[in-house]
Amino acid sequence: MIIVLKPQSTKQMVDNFVDSLQKNYDVKVNEWVGTQSTVLGLIGDTSAIDIDYISAQDIVESVKRVQEPYKKANRKFHPDDTVITLPGGQKIGDGSLSLIAGPCSVESERQIVEIAKSVKDSGAQFLRGGAFKPRTSPYAFQGLKAEGLELLREARKVTGLPIVTEIMRVSHIPLFEDVDIIQVGARNMQNFELLKELGRLDKPILLKRGLSSTIEELLMSAEYIMAGGNEKVILCERGIRTYETYTRNTLDISAVPILKKLSHLPVIVDPSHASGISWLVEPLALAAVAAGADGLIIEVHNDPQHALSDGAQSLTPEQFDQVAKHVNAAAKAFGRKVG
C-alpha cells in the first residue's frame, strides 16, 4: 500500500502517523521524502487496513494498493530515480551515461593494466573484468580467481578506475570486501541465498537479468537484495534466450524503458553478451542510449583473437574508442553527457 502525504505535513505529524500505523497494523513502513511530498510504503499484510479510513486523515493526500509483488524496487514506493554514488564520486543513475569496460576475463597483470589504461583514455569510468568465471563447459577457462581479484586491484591502483567483477558463491564474499561494484551474473540471478547475503552489504550490486527470466523475476531478485537492507542495486539487461540463433542472445531493448517505468533503480545494458558478435556491439549500444539506459558495460580485449574467453564479442581498444565517441555523441543528442 502507498500513502502519499500532504506537502505541508510536518516531521512530527509524519512521525506520529507512522507510529500509529505500525501500532495498529502488522506492517513495516518505509518512508521516502521527495521534493514535493512524502510517500509512505506499507509492506506486510495490508488487507485489514480500511483505505477510506486512512484517506480521511488530515495528513493524507491519497492512498492506493500496490499489486506488484516487488515493493522496495517499485517506483510507486520511491518516485525519484535512485542514484548510486561510489566513494570516489562516480555516479550511476544521475542522468549521465556511465561506461563500464574491460575484458571478459583477467588473464595477466600486463593485460588488465593495459586495457584499463586504454578504456580510461577513451572515457570509461569503471573497469570490468572477470576473476571468477561461470562457464558452460567445465573444461573452459574458469578465471584466475583470487589472483584475478588482486590484478584488478593493481589496475585500479594504476588508473583509479573503480572495479566491477562477478561473484559466484556466498563463501567468496570476504574476497570481495574492497571490490567497488559486485556483479551477479545471469546464471546466479536467482541464487537466492547469495542475493540474501549481498543484501547485508553496503556496496553496489550489479544484477544481470537471467537468460530466460522475465522482467518481474529480475525485479524480484533485486527485491531479495533490497529486503536485506542493501538498496544499492543496478539492473542490467544483457539479452535473453530466444529461438534466434544468429546472435548469442536477443537484446530485449524494450526492457530498458519498462524497467525505468516500473522501478527507480538504475538500468544498464550489456551489448557484448547480448549479441556475442563484436560488430553488433556499437549499434546495440546506441540503441540502449536511445532507450534511456543509465550505462553500458562493454567487453574490451587487447587481443580478442587469443582471448581466453568471449573473444568473438570483445572490442579492441581502438574499436572501443570509436564506440565511446559515437555513444558520447548520441548521448549529447538526447541531452545527456557521458560520465
From TrEMBL:
Task: Return any one Pfam family short name.
Answer: DAHP_snth_FXD
* Gene Ontology BP terms: aromatic amino acid family biosynthetic process
Domain DAHP synthetase I/KDSA stretches? 84-329
> SUPFAM superfamilies, alphabetically?
Aldolase
One of the entry's Gene Ontology molecular-function terms is: aldehyde-lyase activity
PANTHER family, A to Z: PHOSPHO-2-DEHYDRO-3-DEOXYHEPTONATE ALDOLASE (PTHR43018)
Query: What organism does the record attribute this protein to?
Result: [Clostridium] leptum DSM 753
Ribosomal protein as UniProt keyword: no
Q: Quick one: which gene encodes this? A: aroF
Annotated protein name in UniProt: 3-deoxy-7-phosphoheptulonate synthase
* Keyword vocabulary terms for this entry: Transferase
Q: Gene3D superfamilies annotated for this entry?
A: Aldolase class I, Phospho-2-dehydro-3-deoxyheptonate aldolase, domain 1
Please list the residue ranges annotated as the DAHP synthase ferredoxin-like domain. 1-68
Q: Which InterPro entries does its entry note?
A: Aldolase_TIM, Class-I_DAHP_synthase, DAHP1/KDSA, DAHP_snth_FXD, DAHP_syn_2
Q: Which residues form the signal peptide?
A: none
Could you tell me the EC number(s) of this protein?
2.5.1.54
